[in-house]
Q: What sequence folds into this?
């Protein structure tokens, strides 16, 4: 397995829930790994009170794979299986989350009528450094946002692919809101999802979920991007860093609309 040399100095993997603090600005913190989540490791050892010290912007889930988490402007929100938004209590825990203190380095506009693929292509064309992680915030009005969420799981936990097969998909029409997420390079190691992983919350903080597709409304979509020069990954005790790359089919099953 080959990893881009530019990632070697930026990727820090720590097992056992180390307590090292990250300085603010252009850094990302990740609790656990995608590979662990894929394998059904849905119990975490990090509380949202602890996550708040790691970042004010990001995505993830809650213990038991209980819905989709959106961190925006320092608030931690949960989209339940029906897409309804609620505040996450500080004592709740997460098996997987990616956070940063968002400080945009790029500002760009996505044209009216653009779909999900054009949104991603516009960012790709204007933001370089494909080998590092980027945080993405996009605000505006959408003709539609297709979202999903999943129901809370019970032990013994099933693999994530089986959980997603039972996902709830719903469409939000003519809605104003914010896309929150990241663009990951293919790090290998089963660390994160290569490509774009975005969640959505509407302007009223009432509805949202994991984004499967979207359409930009009549005005350009305002996008901000932060270049994250450092990715710090902490794994719970007993969770190992993997070595295999995710296949494109696996990524598509996790990220895009399969209906």
A:
């Amino acid at each position: 397995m080959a990893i881009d040399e530019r990632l070697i100095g930026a990727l820090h993997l720590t097992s056992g829930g180390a307590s090292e603090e990250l300085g603010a600005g252009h850094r990302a913190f990740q609790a656990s790994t995608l590979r662990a989540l894929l394998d059904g490791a849905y119990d975490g050892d990090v509380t949202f009170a602890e996550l708040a010290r790691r970042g004010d912007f990001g995505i993830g889930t809650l213990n038991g794979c209980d819905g989709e988490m959106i961190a925006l402007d320092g608030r931690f929100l949960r989209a339940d299986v029906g897409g309804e938004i609620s505040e996450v209590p500080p004592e709740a825990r997460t098996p997987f989350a990616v956070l940063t203190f968002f400080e945009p380095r790029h500002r760009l506009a996505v044209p009216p009528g653009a779909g999900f693929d054009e949104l991603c292509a516009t960012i790709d064309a204007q933001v370089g450094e494909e080998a590092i992680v980027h945080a993405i915030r996009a605000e505006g009005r959408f003709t539609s946002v297709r979202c999903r969420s999943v129901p809370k799981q019970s032990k013994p936990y099933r693999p994530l692919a089986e959980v997603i097969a039972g996902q709830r998909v719903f469409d939000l029409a003519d809605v104003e809101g914010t896309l929150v997420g990241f663009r990951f390079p293919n790090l290998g190691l089963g660390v994160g999802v290569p490509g774009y992983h975005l969640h959505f919350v509407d302007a009223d903080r009432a509805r949202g979920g994991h984004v499967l597709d979207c359409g930009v409304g009549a005005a350009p979509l305002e996008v901000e991007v932060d270049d994250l020069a450092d990715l710090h990954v902490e794994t719970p005790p007993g969770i190992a860093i993997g070595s295999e790359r995710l296949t494109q089919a696996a990524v598509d099953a996790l990220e895009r609309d399969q209906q």
